[in-house]
Amino acid sequence: MGISVKPALLKYLSFGAVAFLVLIMGVATVLEKLYDTSFVSKFIYGSPYFIALWGICALAGLCYLIAQKRHKHLVAFMLHLSFVLILLGALVTHIAGRQGRIHLRQDEGHETTYVTDDMKTEVLPFEVSLKNFKLEYYPGTFAPMDFVSTILIRDGEVEEEGVVAMNHIYTYRHYRFYQSQYDMDGKGATLFIAHDPYGIAITYSGYALLLVSIILFMLQKDSRFRQLLRHPLLQRSGVICFLLLMAFPTIKAGEIPRALPKDVATKFCDLYIYYNDRICPIQTLAKDFTIKLCGHSTYKGLSSEQVLSGWLFYYDEWKEEPVIRIKNKEVQHLLGIKGSYARLTDFADVNGYKIEIGLQSGSVGDMRALEEANEKFNLISMVSTGSLLKIYPYSSPSQPVEWYSLADELPRDLPADLAMFIHNSMGYVAEMVAKKDYAQVSVLLDKIKKFQQKEAAGVLPSESRFTAEKFYNVMDYTKPVAMGCVLLGLVSFVLYCRRNFYGKRDDCKTLDNDNVTSKPSKHSDTDKYWLWFGILCKALMIILFAYLFILIGLRGYVGNHLPLSNGFETMQFMAWCTLLFTFILQRKFQMMLPFGFLVCGLALMVSMFGESNPQITQLMPVLQSPLLSVHVVVIMLAYSLLAFIMLNGVTAVILHYSSRDCRLEIERLLVISQILLYPAVFLLTIGIFIGAIWANVSWGRYWGWDPKEVWALITMLVYALALHPDSLPWFRRPMFFHLFSIAAFFLVLITYFGVNFLLGGMHSYAG
User: Fold this and answer.
1) Which of 436, 430, 432 is nearest to 312 (CA)?
2) Which carries the bigger pLDDT value, residue 637 or residue 547?
3) Predicted confidence (pLDDT) at residue 484 exceeds the cutoff of 50
4) 737: which residues sit within 8 A by CB, 6+ positions away?
5) Of 79, 296, 651, 735, whose CB count within 10 A is highest?
6) Mean pLDDT for all residues in the chain
7) By three-state DSSP, how is residue 660 classified?
8) Taken in order 30, 35, 37, 42, is the CA torsion positive or negative?
9) How far apart are CA 423 and CA 406, in angstroms?
10) What is the reported pLDDT for 145?
11) Residue 102 to residue 574: CA distance in whole angstroms
């Protein structure tokens, strides 16, 4: 009896510790939001009880594996041992590691001490000084590209020079220096110092063992994953049907305001502009401006180029046009409008500027809605006055290229002929527009562009990149594609369920001695019907896959980095990953096509949450690391698979409550979900630890208990429970597993959206 009780106690102790850790970490992120980070860091994450709980979890789990003789399964044992190594490395870092900051100024001598995170002073075994600090910008812009500190180490008779930049560590005698902050005058820098010679080595060994174990597990012939792939329930092939309905935005009826001819407006927006800390076509500003203003990239059939140029050249008419979208009812009432669209003239009356009155009186409860309306008003003012149109570059021998608008004060050393050109050129364009002499307008626009190419030579984007951005702006139809995918997925899913729920008895399959057999169908005409729908569905999937691939590729080429740096880009990439998985798995699993379209459409719709401001931007210095791309790609692949598993669960619930006996189909969905769960959890785990390595390279610590990190870890631990059906027999029950997969997906939603919008943290930029 004693031998049988001990493994049971170890099992409850290890899995119970995991559940308790998940609960504590979830509560800690909420407390961190309500109170302060230092309180949670000291009394929860840094407390001896929390550390002891991790130790109990690791030791009890390891002892349980040995008691169950799982150590004989070498690969599975190595996989679990890697987590023990990672936790051991974290413990060594916590006990023996030292972290702090040192502030250095040029020409102000050496420093021999630094301040630790707990505000104590530590002595360095050498002297360090700042030789030079340099703030590097993207060519032709004032967007920071990197912060570079050149430091000088003096260690007795040894003198060594080192360079510290973002994502570039300088190491001396196991002391690692990271770029943290810089002084506003550009003559000083604050460096982060980390001294952890043993903890990081142990942790990285655990990462390496984890990766090797995962690869061996997926390749091992007798692993549970490979056994599931050979499950008899998967020998059934199915066909999927769909009904395609694409939704395109409708054009509002009514009188169209005066605007430039489309070809002339297009040529105007072909000029270069310094916008959003980079050089791009005015067309990009026009698209962002129109979407921000009215919620669409077009207005009453007018292109975004015509809308922007309309406000610039026909201001008196456009100010009476109800083009400004106001979603908040209280703001609508404040402006005195009926409906969702306001005119510029609605923002003011004899009493003054209505938004300012609303701010002072507090008549509108949603301050964010007031600020959004105020932002739109100011945006129109900046376009109409030309202050937003920084289209005139100038560089002097001592200064880099700087861009000016008509409203800017020009530099005093600007030659008289250039100053005259800048002051008068757009006035001449406006004069020719008023005369409707569009041929002369075209000539003047050519002169302005030649001026730009001459003055900004060397910093302008290449012609191919410039053309690619214009092509990207034209072909970006995310909204109708998203709506079409969601509708297609829903309709095909309903038709699939209808076919399976109400099909004839002779269409069913039976399970006899673990062998699946099919009875011949008497509905050959119906089967042909479904087959043709399936072929058309697959063809559309390939077209959509290619479209997203081109769209993502263009955005990456224009931005000069992999487009994975914010929520808009990562959700588009997730949509593309979903189609990739659908393409690979649809022949094996019949539900993949409806699910693929549904998840793809939902991901694209989520990406449109930021559609009012999805500009292509220069990459932040900290994000300029190849580890960023790998980290985001792996995480998005995991999220895509978990979304498939969740939808499988929804299907199983629908089947369970149907009038037909669908136990066989529910069990088959269980097998599919279990197969997908292994790569999903493994990819999520790898993504988390790649992110930890990136954080260690960028910030000097591979784990900082940021809310995003914590919830990603919670998600991984919860889903990992389902990989232990031998120890947790509940997961052998099909309906329990399916309900678990639905509930667990809320953790993914919290990790990706809840943290970004509610809890904040260092990862908020990724939202």
Assistant:
1) 430
2) 547
3) yes
4) 649, 670, 673, 674, 722, 731
5) 651
6) 79
7) coil
8) negative
9) 7
10) 65
11) 40
